[in-house]
């Protein structure tokens, strides 16, 4: 049975098209401000969902509301950037830029005790239909472990897709691969072993796909 690299319960807060062209962490600041309430006691609204990372893309499964039976799939080659962040008000601290920002979970400022703000998995992906602009999607996670797992699995899936493209473009690499023992990497999502990331009740396995 083929399993995802990881599957996490999330609250999907929607997407926003960046109006300011910036790369990396700066590129998600403006879109997340539009989608996430930044008050001290935020009342977050979103769609209860499952988010899973597969070797070929990211699958969003709605489990409540009008879209309960709908899914959305984002091919891994449309991924532009992703990060696990938390909203932090760093006003008064000696932080470049200052003010209110979404900072990486490994930042000391993002680990302030008793913060009312949950971890967020943010992913910038390019639309595959219509005007193919970059679009930032926000997913509130139940804990840091889930948000970090999503980032880590997206990285591995994207890296694997690049290696596959290299195999197609460089005949020598394909020949070397065909001449190998054919043993599958333990980290491969096609392995018969269960290698899904599962840390707690909120990082789950995916059902069998037919």
UniProtKB/TrEMBL annotation:
Transmembrane spans: none
Chain segments carrying region Disordered: 175-210
The organism's taxonomic lineage, starting at the top: Eukaryota, Metazoa, Ecdysozoa, Nematoda, Chromadorea
Designated name of the protein: PID domain-containing protein
SUPFAM superfamilies hit by this protein: PH domain-like
Biased composition (Basic and acidic residues): 199-210
Biased composition (Polar residues): 187-197
Residue ranges of domain PID in the record: 3-171
InterPro entries, A to Z: PTB/PI_dom (IPR006020)
């Amino acid at each position: 049975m083929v399993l995802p690299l990881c599957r996490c319960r999330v609250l999907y807060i929607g997407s926003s098209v960046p109006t300011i062209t910036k790369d990396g962490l700066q590129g998600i600041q403006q879109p997340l401000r539009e989608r996430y309430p930044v008050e001290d006691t935020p009342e977050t609204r979103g769609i209860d969902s499952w988010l899973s990372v597969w070797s070929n893309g990211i699958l969003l499964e709605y489990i409540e509301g009008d879209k309960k039976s709908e899914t959305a799939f984002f091919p891994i080659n449309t991924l532009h950037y992703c990060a696990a962040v938390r909203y932090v008000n760093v006003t008064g601290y000696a932080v470049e830029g200052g003010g209110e920002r979404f900072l990486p979970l490994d930042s000391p400022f993002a680990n302030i005790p008793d913060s009312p703000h949950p971890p967020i998995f943010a992913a910038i992906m390019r639309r595959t239909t219509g005007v193919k602009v970059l679009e930032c999607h926000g997913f509130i996670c139940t804990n840091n472990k889930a948000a970090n797992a999503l980032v880590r699995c997206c990285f591995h899936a994207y890296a694997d897709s690049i290696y596959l493209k290299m195999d197609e473009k460089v005949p020598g690499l394909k020949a070397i691969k065909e001449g190998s023992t054919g043993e599958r990497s333990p980290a491969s999502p096609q392995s018969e072993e269960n290698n899904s990331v599962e840390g707690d009740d909120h990082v789950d396995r995916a059902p069998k796909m037919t």
